[in-house]
Amino acid sequence: MSALVHPASARPPLIGLLGGTFDPVHFGHLRLGEEMREALGLDELRLLPAAQPPHRPPPVADARTRLQLLQLAVDGVPGFCVDARELQRPGPSYTVDSLRQLRADYPAASLVWILGADAFNGFTRWHDWPGILEHAHLAVASRPGSRIEGEAARLLAERGVAADALRERRAGGIVPVEITALDISATRLRALIARGASTRFLLPEAVREQIHQQGLYPRAAPTDGAPRQP
Ligand code: ATP
Asked: Is residue 205 assigned to a domain?
């Protein structure tokens, strides 16, 4: 985990936070992080693997393995780092708990929690979502044509800000960012690996090699809806 050090005279940092299961990490995640880094002018992009994601079935690979794959993925990537704090807490990995810790670590920073438009549509069902907005801004990644609806659309109308306003306050704004998403998912990768198909050019080579060496994802994951193989 890298620590952003900034002298008192420097402007406070703008830190992007990308949470996920990363089961395994792939170029869809990394490209999302890179486009957000560029669009928002982030000083740092932190990837936070969830130990126990609260709103979905348990991941296939254990948390230490997913962390190790993430570390291989960001090794040498400028501006990217891995933040393992959710592995150090017992129980469900609530975003608001991570943000409270990050706020204590970086009192002056503007924090930006990055999430997809689909996830944002369910944001008002997240554990203590108002607490999340007390500690961080949100950056909502939308593909051209994707829609923000219902409660989420109302929240965006109330809290929407432009990217260049994120440094003016430490938290509480919501900025939509159009990204050119890559059609890659961890679910699909696990299914490809399980049937011995090629995953080349979908994830970093170092991650691919490690998955192969450790024999990870040997069977179709029960969460992907595919019939179990004998
Ligand atoms: P799974 O298929 O197991 O559900 P996933 O590939 O969607 O996994 P997650 O770890 O759940 O990956 O995703 C973490 C974050 O990355 C989420 O905010 C998700 O919306 C985003 N994300 C995942 N894949 C892509 C992609 N191809 N393009 C843009 N964003 C992505």
From this structure: yes
